[in-house]
Structures are given as structure tokens and as C-alpha cells.
Amino acid sequence: MQTVAEMFASAINLVHDKPFIIYEGTEITYREMDRQTNSLGNAFLELGITKGDRVAYLFPSNPTIAICDLAIQKIGAVSVPFNAMAMSKDIKYIINNTEVRCLITDEKGYEMYKQVSDELPSLKYIIVKSEAVIPGTLSFNELISKSSEVLTLVKCSPDDICTVLYTSGTTGVAKGTMQTHKSVYVGITQMSISHGLQFKSENMLVVLPIYNNFGRTVFMLSTIYNCGTLLLLERWKTENVLQVATKYGATYFGGTPTMFIYLLEGFDPKRHRFTPSLCFAAGAKCPVDVLNKFEQTFNTRVVEGYGATELCGFVTTNPPLGVSKIGSVGLPIGDVKMKVVDNEGKECPTGGIGEIIVSSDMMAKGYWGDSETSSKAFTEAGWVSGDLGYVDQDGYLFLVDRKKDLIIRGGANVFPQEIEEVFYSHPKVMMAAVVGIPDRVKGEVPKAFVVLKEGRDVSEQELLQFCREKLSAYKVPVGVEFRSELPTNKVGKVLRRELREQVLSN
């Protein structure tokens, strides 16, 4: 087993002059990243930051995150990544919850920090990456330029915490997931093997934020493990994504279903070349018609998978070279064991819908400072996901929905994703989301929110009739609301909770 820092040290020995990250046309080699992270690591040590201390960073998804994270790993401290859209209340909550000693950020993040600076008793240092001199802070650039480029790695044990990743909060208050060196390493190795990633050959295209689990573990850390190159974009602009993929020859791409939809909409075969060997769809269930059209358009293989921050990556995937079942998120990888249970905790028969429980060495240690929630989610049987699904006779997992998103209409279960699939199959619909809204008679009924493709027009009644032809009567939404966009988090997941709250507030 290797820690993240040890993995990076191995990559330095093997491919020191190879580009590690390509960002906005600039190449950063493994050797240059090593120098900068050693300097920052030494700066941390000079400040008295030691093994086990929590160090947070708040940046957009750019190479500074890699510098911060790897420097933190090298001294055995614990990285605490912030979402780039974090507000002052988020900064206060996470820093106090994890007792962060040092925060690294840019000028925008500093402005957020200032609003709560008097309410952060554990925070001793604020490091700002800025060309300006900001009183009361330490200069990121100066610390790196003045510190030694030679650093001895601090030894860590497999069960030591290496990072605390806060969940995106799509279902409420964010929880700090404690990922260990072992859980991250097992995740990276098993994911790499399951997707057949090639040593020194991968150009991994990522537009997912590298401060979250999908972007950090599945892409940034897997790139290091496989001595590949990370093609990093800070934010989603379809044309930019396609241009980078064309210029550098992306071999591997992964994202949420929303991203696959945008790529299909923006692709121009006369200007773009998008030919990855494998594409990975996760984060939400991808509509079948989107998967099929994507494979046909780009002549590539698209596989779906299932994972979570609590599982340090993905734990199931359709095999790239094996049988891929339409609508399935595939088979368990590596040491992963999985079962589906009913409300009484009894294992469901084949095809029976229940809650998914996962057991693996990829499983995180729990939630920071929340033993009560941890004991409910991380059990002897495994991690209790809150997701509903079923396993078929061949062991393939099929996701049905989030348990909390289930709509109970007059006693009958209605799964939003099933209805959304129908909307996605309509030629004029680009995006769709379905939520349950209160009803005096039925208790709860489904309502749809739809974004149409550009230049297309269709009426509410036409879409409802389309649903009636493909769904049982009790599953047909009571109405369709057209939107120019749907609320999503930073990785492109549609936030059903926000839509539901909007309905309730009105």
C-alpha cells in the first residue's frame, strides 16, 4: 500500500519530465509539481503544522489545488477541500467542525473568510495567493519561493485520515467524510484496474472540480497512480472542452449525465475530434437514449458506475470489455461486496427493490465529529447508502432512485428517475427533473421541470400525453413547468431538493 504522497514520489521517479497537468495551455511537469509541493510542505512545517493537523484550501478547480493537496499529504496533515462556491457560513461551519489550523485561498476566498474571521478559534494561519500584499495574511507565492525544495515525506499509517471531504449537501447539511490512506489507495487501484487505465498512456480529461471526490480521487489521484496527464478545465464551457479534447487527444473522460448531453449538443465533426477510449458516466443515472447516442456519435464505449464520497470513488461499473447492460451501473469491482435490503434490513430477493449497502476497504472511516450519524451510516454490514436499487440474476446493479426522493402517491411508489427517463427520450427535451409536491387527496404527486433543446417548442399537454403513452397512469406528472435551466451543484447533479423547496415556498 502507498499513501498519496508515496504514489506521487513513485511517479516522480518514473516520469519526472512528463506533463502532470495541462491547464489553459500551460504544462506543469511532475518534477515542477514536486518542487512546488516540497516548498509549500516545508513552509507548513516551519509554521508548526504537523502530522494530523487539518489544512483547508479554497480555490476554483485549477492546479493550485493539486499543489496544496500534495503538500499537505507530504507532511502527513489532513486536507480539507472547500467547494469553490463556498459562502462565509460554509467556511465557518467546516473550519470549526474540523478544527482547521490553516486556510489557503485566493482574494475572493479571503473576502468570504473576513466575514467570519472572528468566529474561527482553531484557525491560526491564513495564506492567500495574490499579487497584492494583504495585512494579517501570509503570501502563498512568497512561502513557496523562500522555502526549500527538498522535503522528507512524513510516514503515515494505512488507517490515518488523509482528507476530509464534505458532501455536496444535495440532501441537507454537508457531512465531513473521513477518507483514509488505505481507503483512497484501494479505491484508486481497483478503479484503475476495472477501467483498464494504461501506464503512462492516459490523457484524462476532467471538468469536474478536483476538490470533490469524483474529480480528486477518480481523476487527479488516478492520474498520478497511472503516471498519466490530467487535462484540467476550471469550469464547463462545451466548446472549450471539445477544443482541449481535440488538441491533446483525451483518452479518458468522465462526468455527470448533464455533461454528456452538452457534448452531444455542441459537437461539430468538422471542428472537433473527440475519441476517448472510454467514457464514464456517474453522479446520477444517465438516460439510456443519451448513452446510445453518445456511443454512436463518438464511436467510443460509455460505461456507467456507482460510487460515493463515502466509498472513495466508484464501486461498480459496467465492464469496458465485457457485457454492458443497458440501464445498469454494472458489477462490483475488486473487493466490493454489495447487498440490497428491505425496510426491515432483510436482503431482498433477485430483482427486489431495496436500499443498497456496500462493504469494501474503499469505505471511509465515518463522518468527522458526528459519531451518531456515522454509526447509522457505517455499520458492520457496510455503508448504508440511502440509494434504492436492485440486483439482477447476473449480479448487475440497477439504480432506481434516492430513498429520500421516492414519491408515495396514494400509497403507490413513484420513482422520479423512471419518469425523467421518459422525458429524456423525447426529441425536444434537453433536461428534466421530477419531484414530489404535496396533494390533499393523494398525499404527494409528481411534478416535472423541463428544459427544452435550443430552438425547439412543445406544449405541456403534448409532453403529458407522451408520458401517458409510456407510463402507468399514477406515474404521470400532474404538470410540467418549463425552465431555461435547472439548479445543479458544481458537478452537474440536478438539485431536486431546491426544486421541491421552490414549489413549497410558492
Question: What would you say this structure looks like, in words?
Answer:
The structure is a single chain. The chain has 15 helices and 26 strands. Helix content is 32%, strand content 26%. Strand 1 and strand 2 form a beta hairpin. It has 506 residues and is an alpha/beta fold. The termini are far apart.
Task: Offer a quick outline of the entry.
With 506 residues, this protein is an alpha/beta fold. 32% of the residues lie in helices and 26% in strands. It has 15 helices and 26 strands.
State the main characteristics:
Rossmann fold, 15 helices, 506 residues, 3 domains, globular, 26 strands
CATH architecture of the largest domain: 3-Layer(aba) Sandwich
Radius of gyration, CA atoms, in whole angstroms: 23 Å
CATH class label of the largest domain? Alpha Beta
Name the beta content range: 25-35%
Label the overall shape: globular
**Which regions contain 5 or more consecutive residues with pLDDT less than 50?**
none
Find the CATH topology of the largest domain: Rossmann fold
Oligomer: single chain
CATH homologous superfamily assignment of the largest domain: ANL, N-terminal domain
Number of helices: 15
What is the first-to-last residue Cα distance?
A: 54 Å
- What's the overall average pLDDT, rounded? 93
Please list the strands of the largest sheet in the order they lie side by side. Answer: 2-1-11-10-12-13-14-15-16
Structural class: alpha/beta
Structural domains: how many: 3
